[in-house]
Design a protein that fits this description.
- It catalyses: prephenate + NAD(+) = 3-(4-hydroxyphenyl)pyruvate + CO2 + NADH.
- With about 375 residues, the chain is α/β, with parallel strands linked by helices.
- It is built from 13 helices and 11 strands.
- An 8-stranded mixed β-sheet has the order 3-2-1-4-5-6-7-8, sandwiched between helices.
- Strand 1, helix 1 and strand 2 form a beta-alpha-beta unit.
- About 0% of the residues have low confidence.
- The structure holds 1,4-dihydronicotinamide adenine dinucleotide and 3-(4-hydroxy-phenyl)pyruvic acid (ENO).
């Protein structure tokens, strides 16, 4: 496997810091930069690497440009001007536009291998970064005709070092594909969530897991996403037109069914059923078990009363049991006297933690 001893990451946000943390775990030296000094300081504090010196030095093996799509071309040009790296890649969610920008700006394309990890989160910045973000996830590499073979091999080795799987795709084909599986769904999630903006409190109180699942990505940074969507405008518009067509038909059928004779209403609702069945088929085609992310942590769920200090007591109990809590999230429905804390721990510690919490009287459901 190609060795990558030293990498530079330009843009120390969610993706840049996650790449840096993943590579640090493998012993790679990482030099970080960000135009925002506070972001850079935070990424360094999190152990993602050290600051890239202002003065140019020896080129690193690979520079990862983890900036918004519209900034990729210029960032590549500046990095190449200072001789930052032997090879360059980016992580932008669109590929054709940054490649065109790089060409227009006169960048050297031989060492540049455009890339895109299909893994992310609805949060931005280094504090949301995770070393395991890319484990088992697809990562598109879209070499241009100018990309050299050594550049492609070295960037592919970096992707694998992050735990991801390389998929070589043409940039235009990539953009059409992600319009369907990422960018279109993002706008649909935002449109569903936007319905809740002025929703009555009673509706919000009744919100269950379904609406949370459908709208999770609607919590993402609008500024970044406007950049992504406008850089992939036509393919995304085509997906949205198709979704809008299905929705318009469903709405028309439902409205007609409410006033139609029962035999006609049955035919009409069948049309709605057809859409739901097509949805079942499409959903089943998404790679699941085999294409999914292998679990790194076990999750222990604890039912917690909504009272001050309860979470602190759980952490204390975990500490007494010698278990380190790697992550925690809390699911809480307003108005209910209890919530559920999900504690992420190393798999070998899950049993100890479960026993310790049950001993102290907490309810720890068995997870299937
Ligand atoms: N958010 C996600 O889930 C995913 C994002 N991406 C792509 O990764 C890239 C970065 O996105 P995130 O990490 O989510 O955003 P982020 O907002 O967390 O991080 C971007 C960082 O780049 C810095 N930056 C912006 N322009 C810069 C410049 N010219 N020079 C140096 N630093 C600069 C910002 O200060 C910020 O810290 C984008 O191109 C995005 O399309 C790819 C996969 C998933
Ligand atoms: O949060 C999620 O599940 C995502 O799917 C995030 C995401 C956002 C942008 C990308 O280009 C790729 C992945």
């Amino acid at each position: 496997m190609t060795e990558i001893p030293c990498v530079a990451v330009v843009g120390a946000g969610l993706i840049g810091t996650s790449v840096a943390l993943a590579l640090r775990e493998r012993g790679t030296e990482v030099l970080l930069s960000d135009r925002d000094p506070a972001t850079l300081a935070l990424a360094i504090e999190l152990g993602a690497g050290i600051a890239l010196p202002d003065e140019p030095g020896e080129p690193v093996d690979v520079a990862v440009l983890a900036v918004p799509p519209a900034a990729v071309g210029r960032t590549l040009l500046e990095a190449q001007k200072r001789g930052l790296a032997r090879f360059y890649t980016d992580v932008a969610s669109v590929k054709a536009r940054p490649v065109l920008d790089a060409m227009d700006l006169g960048c050297d394309l031989r060492g540049y291998v455009p890339g895109h990890p299909l893994a992310g989160r609805e949060r931005s910045g280094p504090t949301a970064a995770r070393a395991d973000l890319f484990l088992g996830r697809p990562w598109a590499l879209c070499p241009t005709e100018a990309s050299g073979e050594e550049a492609v091999e070295t960037v592919a080795a970096l992707v694998r070092a992050c735990g991801a799987e390389v998929h070589r795709v043409d940039p235009v084909e990539h953009d059409q594909a992600v319009a369907l599986v990422s960018h279109g769904p993002h706008v649909v999630a935002a449109a569903v969530a936007a319905r809740l903006e002025n929703a009555p409190q009673v509706a919000l109180d009744l919100a269950g897991q379904g609406v949370r699942d459908v709208t999770r990505i609607a919590a993402s940074d609008p500024g970044l996403w406007v950049d992504i969507l406008t850089a992939n405008a036509v393919p995304v518009a085509e997906v949205l037109d198709a979704v809008a067509g299905d929705l318009a038909l469903a709405a028309a059928m439902l409205r007609a069914s409410s006033t139609a004779r029962s035999d006609v209403a049955e035919v009409i609702t069948q049309k709605v059923g057809d859409l739901l069945s097509r949805g079942n088929t499409g959903r089943a085609r998404i790679p699941g078990k085999h294409g999914g992310r292998p679990p790194r942590y076990a999750h222990v769920q604890v039912v917690i009363p909504d009272s001050p200090g309860e979470l602190a007591r759980i952490f204390e109990a975990a500490g007494h049991a010698g278990v380190n809590i790697e992550d925690v999230s809390i699911e809480h429905s307003p108005g209910l006297p209890v919530g559920v804390a999900e504690l992420s721990v190393r798999p070998e510690a899950a049993e100890t933690l479960t026993a310790a919490l049950r001993d102290r009287g907490w309810s720890v459901p068995v997870l299937s």
